[in-house]
Amino acid sequence: MGTPLASTGEQAEEVVNRLEEAYPDSTISLRYADRLELLIAVILSAQCTDERVNSETEHLFEKYDGAKDYANVPQDELAEDLNSITYYNNKAKYIRSACESIVEDHDGEVPDTMAELTDLSGVGRKTANVVLQHGHDVVEGIVVDTHVQRLSRRLGLTEEEYPEPIEAELMEIVLEDYWQQFTHLCIDHGRATCTARNPDCSACVLADICPSEKGDGEVDLASGDPW
């Protein structure tokens, strides 16, 4: 069992420093050419791998050009174009509805505020944060996906269970300059080492400061279950 640093602020800073060294090129893995493509890719990425999304959007972005195309396509046709994506019927509805709003209420442009983005169909705070950060260079918060949720609990940075309260706690302890990068570092480490089912604690650069480390620790703090 690793021993966390004295405060969660110190713990967060050390986590960022070590992960930056381990993953110096960490960045978003979704592929897109503009803000609308980013928005659509993030909507599609819910409960789906970025690799699958990138494969699907390669032909999707060739077929559709702008919000009007998505707003006007028949629901069944768009759903068929997305049929290898999880929950593709619902996501097709979200995309069509969001694009209708973008055309009707925002002159065809993806909005640049949290309130306007989260008013769009299928867009929660996580999706809005990604679009703001990578589409508009606006960093208002920390994107809490499943990797950030899992790692922040395992590392003792929070005891909260759900994304929004986790984000609020992380914003208090992660330096603001690292809010965006913190997510990418957690995603890379979560994919490479700190996986959900069988983390490789023996190869982890954070093992000595991780209270969930399997060597001596009895509980996975991410789930509360025993190892």
Report on this structure.
With 227 residues, the chain is an all-alpha fold. It has 2 domains: 8-26 and 143-226, Orthogonal Bundle (Endonuclease Iii, domain 2), CATH 1.10.1670; 35-135, Orthogonal Bundle (Endonuclease III, domain 1), CATH 1.10.340.30. 53% of the residues lie in helices and 2% in strands. It has 11 helices and 2 strands. A two-stranded antiparallel ribbon has the order 1-2. Helix 5 (75-81) packs across helix 6 (88-105). The chain is elongated, with a radius of gyration of 19 Å. The protein starts with 7 loop residues before the first helix and ends with a strand.
Q: Any idea what the CATH architecture of the largest domain is?
A: Orthogonal Bundle
Helix segment count? Answer: 11
Helix content: 40-55%
Q: CATH superfamily of the largest domain, called what?
A: Helix-hairpin-Helix base-excision DNA repair enzymes (C-terminal)
Secondary-structure element series:
HHHHHHHHHHHEE
The CATH C-level class name of the largest domain: Mainly Alpha
Q: In whole angstroms, how far apart are the ends?
A: 12 Å
CATH names the topology of the largest domain as: Endonuclease Iii, domain 2
Major beta sheet, specifics? Answer: 2 strands, antiparallel
Rg (C-alpha, Å): 19 Å
**Total beta strand runs:** 2
Kindly give the count of domains. Answer: 2
* Contiguous uncertain segments of 5+ residues: none
Silhouette: elongated
Instruction: Describe the strand arrangement of the main beta sheet, using strand numbers.
Output: 1-2
Specify the structural class.
mainly alpha
- Strand % is under 5%
